[in-house]
Amino acid sequence: MKLHPALAPFLFSAAVAVATAATPAPKKKAADPTPELPPASATAVYEPVPVVVSAPPSAAPSDAVVLFDGKNLDAWITTKPDGGPAPWKLEGDAMVCVPKSGNIRTRQAFGDIQLHLEFRTPAVVSGEGQGRGNSGVFFMGIYELQILDSYNNPTYVNGQAGSIYKQYAPLVNASRPPGEWQSYDVVWVAPRFGPDGKVTRPARMTVFHNGVLVQHDAVLKGNTPNRGYPAYKAHADRLPLSLQDHNNTIAFRNIWVRELKLPAE
């Protein structure tokens, strides 16, 4: 059939449209999802240079304040108003609580610290629950990390060894049998208070009991009373550390602290 000349332009346009529709548009190149990284030197920090601290095996670090090394109790005094000498006694290389003699505290005051302390509950088991091998480490004389013979000795869990007393139970029970030496390694961050007496930074505590993590950056709710509920009351940024006389002959040795200069929050 012979095509009428007048129809030719229309047929050509239709053919072009069909060809265009059948040909897929070229795909755009995907953008590289990995941004260009800065040179390694851009993130390298050279100052301030950390202070060199030597840490001999089984000895206090070179920048530590030694509070008890088995020689004397000179770093400690009674918490009684007269502030007399510590009434506890030396036995070998240990400092032993004399029941009913009272708590003792350091002569020196501290704020944020790393603490190392070793303790031993009596080998001869006497009493049960809170009456068995009881003492405590009181940071700033206010906030208690419990010491207790918690080896096969049921009691309320926020009062067993490794607990922040009446606030946080330990993550695990890492207690050794009575009569064996045990250790606490603690990072203590002291609370801060504003001019109005309100807490601006709560206290925090991380604790290793015999090398096992039992408190991880726990935020304290306040003091640690036996009765009532925790609450903060404004106090100085630095206060003495104290050890509790709970009428048990708990022994202590190798006590030292490192004063910490933590970054401002």
In a few lines, what is going on in this structure?
The chain has a single domain (65-259), classed as Exo-inulinase, domain 1 (Jelly Rolls, Sandwich).
Number of domains: 1
Tell me what the CATH architecture is. Answer: Sandwich
Radius of gyration from CA coordinates: 33 Å
Q: Structural class per helix/strand content? A: mainly beta
Strand proportion, as a percent range, falls in 25-35%
Which consecutive residue ranges, at least 5 long each, have pLDDT under 50?
none
Order of helices and strands: HEEEEEEEEEEEEEEE
Largest sheet: 8 strands, antiparallel
Number of helices: 1
The CATH first-level class comes to Mainly Beta
Mean pLDDT: 91
What would the principal axes of the Cα set say about the shape?
elongated
- So, the CATH homologous superfamily? Exo-inulinase, domain 1
Give the N-terminus to C-terminus distance in angstroms.
91 Å
CATH topology: Jelly Rolls
Give a description of the structure.
- By secondary structure, the protein is mainly beta.
- The chain has one domain (65-259): Jelly Rolls (Sandwich).
- 6% of the residues lie in helices and 30% in strands.
- The protein has one helix and 15 strands; from the N terminus they run αβββββββββββββββ.
- It has one helix at residues 8-22, and strands at 65-68, 76-78, 89-91, 94-96, 104-110, 113-120, 135-139, 143-147, 182-189, 192-193, 199-201, 204-209, 212-219, 239-243, 251-259.
- Strands 1, 3, 4, 6, 9, 12, 13 and 15 form an eight-stranded antiparallel β-sheet that branches.
- A hairpin with a 5-residue loop joins strand 10 and strand 11 (199-201).
- The longest helix is centred in the N-terminal third of the chain and has 15 residues, at 8-22.
- The termini are far apart.
- The mean pLDDT is 91.
